[in-house]
Amino acid sequence: MIIAASSTAEYVNHHLTFLTSGEGVNALNLDTLFFSTLLGLLFIGVFGLAARRATSGVPGPLQNFVEVIVEFVDTSVKEGFQGPREFVAPLALTIFVWTFLWNLMDLVPVDLLPLAGQQMGLPYLRVVPSADMSATFALSISVFILILIYSVKGKGWGGFAKEMLYHPFGSFPLLIPANLLLNFVELLAKPLSLALRLFGNLYAGELIFILIALLPWWAQWVPGLGWAIYHILVITLQAFIFMTLTVVYLSLAYEKH
After folding, report:
1. Which of 29, 76, 130, 201 is catalytic?
2. Over the stretch 114-124, which tens digit does the pLDDT of each residue have?
3. Which of 90, 174, 198, 225 has its Cβ near the most Cβ atoms within 10 Å?
4. Looking at residues 56-65, what average pLDDT do you find?
């Protein structure tokens, strides 16, 4: 435990407190915004550099790395989305890589960046955007809006309205309210499940790393290394799940039932 704290509870609370500007609904978690933007720029910069250096000859390590990720995501989209993929494939790539980079910040030693922030006069600093519910909900709400857009794009306004009114119990007038209720619940469950799954897994991972940091330095290595190795699988899987569910939800929205 590097950051000074008078108790275990104070140490944990310090690491779970955001650097916030404003209050209530106007509050902004500045650390989440900063690291999300920084990681997004890193993603654009690395992939843009690979695109500019791409060659038809023997590819370099960076081109190989980017091509593997792009091919993996493109294959996943082809298998999961049967409509036009000009937008969906880049969206899936962005979600997968950006979310993975968010999650990857959980492997940074828990005291390293907060301590550096203290040296710059910042009282708090949380570095894992996906452990912030406002970030995961922002991403999932964006997907939710796209679900509505693709529902209209694939079925038309009339088809979308009919699906909302007549599915799953049919067009009998007395059953329309039940159809509407079930469809609204199904629609709202999609962004909720996306946001809460990502947040819950990464918040738990962050908390476990904080608790490991409370151990004496000589006792941190085995549990810390073991959890870090396991967590590499978790952060990759959570990024893949978010991407895959996004593609599946858009496919379901686009298809006519």
Report:
1. 201
2. 999 989 999 99
3. 198
4. 87
- DSSP sequence for the chain: --S--SSHHHHHHHHT---EESSGGG-EEHHHHHHHHHHHHHHHHHHHHHHHT--SSS--HHHHHHHHHHHHHHHHHHHH--S--TTHHHHHHHHHHHHHHHHHGGGS-TTHHHHHHHHTT-S-----GGGSHHHHHHHHHHHHHHHHHHHHHHHHHHHHHHHHHHTTT-S-GGGHHHHHHHHHHHHHHHHHHHHHHHHHHHHHHHHHHHHHHTS-GGGSHHHHHHHHHHHHHHHHHHHHHHHHHHHHHHHHHHS--
Q: How far is Cα 108 from Cα 121, in angstroms, rounded to an integer?
A: 20
Given the residues 13, 64, 171, 193, the one annotated as active site: 193
Q: How far apart are CA 46 and CA 11, in angstroms?
A: 36
Distances (CA, A) of 29 to 22, 62, 204: 9, 33, 19
Q: Tell me how far apart the alpha carbons of residues 209 and 152 are, in angstroms, rounded to a whole number.
A: 44
Whether 197 is catalytic: yes
- Domain map of the chain by residue range? 18-254
pTM score, two decimals? 0.91
Considering the candidates 134, 142, 183, 197, report the single residue annotated as catalytic.
197
